[in-house]
Specification:
heterodimer, A: about 110 residues, seven-stranded mixed sheet, globular, B: mainly beta, five-stranded antiparallel sheet
């Protein structure tokens, strides 16, 4: 089966610009998660979708971040306007069940804000 | 919320030696502890996990131990090989009501020198 796909793999943007990251989960996985790793730090939870609904968005840093999951399939994470501290690797993961087990991660999008 | 501490941040060993990475967690209700390996430029991949009703689990050269009383768990790699070189992340599954999420440690960069 195809894995979790993320694109772009890399993005370099200027401060103040907008960037949209996309994640295609494994087909049939209702649960989709976004995580972020800032250089040298932990992989930090951002939010969790169950199908098209936001189950938990407690990790979203501020209102410059907007996540959507159209029709419960792929998800996008938009950062607008981007700030320097938004730089990092953004990971998406999906799972079949809701209990937090069986995550499959994507390869991540490395975002650099200059 | 859950907090996971991971040590050491870097670990260098000679091929054939053992490597041990330790993690502590704060939420006594956490009941699932996976370990992920991330090779350079690739996605984090689950290598082993342990649930709270088990004290130890082994899979070939990899083992994980869990001490629920002390709230710590460890990854043990024996007979290390150069291909074991990667960043390793521990995680703990916590729940806030019906919301489950993994909380990760900061990662350990393991280098196995041939």
């Amino acid at each position: 089966e195809a894995g979790v796909t993320q694109f772009p793999s890399h993005s370099v943007i200027e401060k103040g610009q907008t960037v949209t990251l996309r994640c295609d989960p494994i087909s049939g996985h209702d649960n989709l998660y976004w995580y972020r790793r800032v250089m040298g730090k932990e992989i930090k939870f951002l939010l969790h979708f169950v199908k098209e609904s936001k189950q938990d968005e407690s990790g979203m840093p501020n209102n410059r971040f907007l996540a959507e999951r159209t029709g419960g399939t792929y998800s996008t994470l938009k950062v607008q306007p981007a700030e320097l501290e938004d730089s990092g690797v953004y990971f998406c993961a999906s799972s079949l069940g809701t209990g937090g087990y069986g995550y499959t991660f994507g390869s991540g999008t490395r975002l650099t804000v200059v | 919320g859950e907090n996971v501490e991971q040590h050491p941040s870097t670990l260098s060993v000679q091929e054939g030696d053992s490597a041990v990475i330790k993690c502590t967690y704060s939420d006594s209700a956490s009941n699932y502890f996976p370990w992920y390996k991330q090779e350079l430029g690739k996605r984090p991949q689950l290598i082993i996990d342990i649930r709270s009703n088990v004290g130890e689990k082994k899979d070939q050269r990899i083992a994980v131990t869990l001490n629920k009383t002390a709230k710590h768990f460890s990854l043990h790699i024996t007979e290390t090989q150069p291909e074991d070189s990667a960043v390793y992340f521990c995680a703990a599954l916590s729940s806030g009501g019906s919301n489950y999420k993994l909380t990760f440690g900061k990662g350990t960069l393991l280098t196995v020198n041939p």
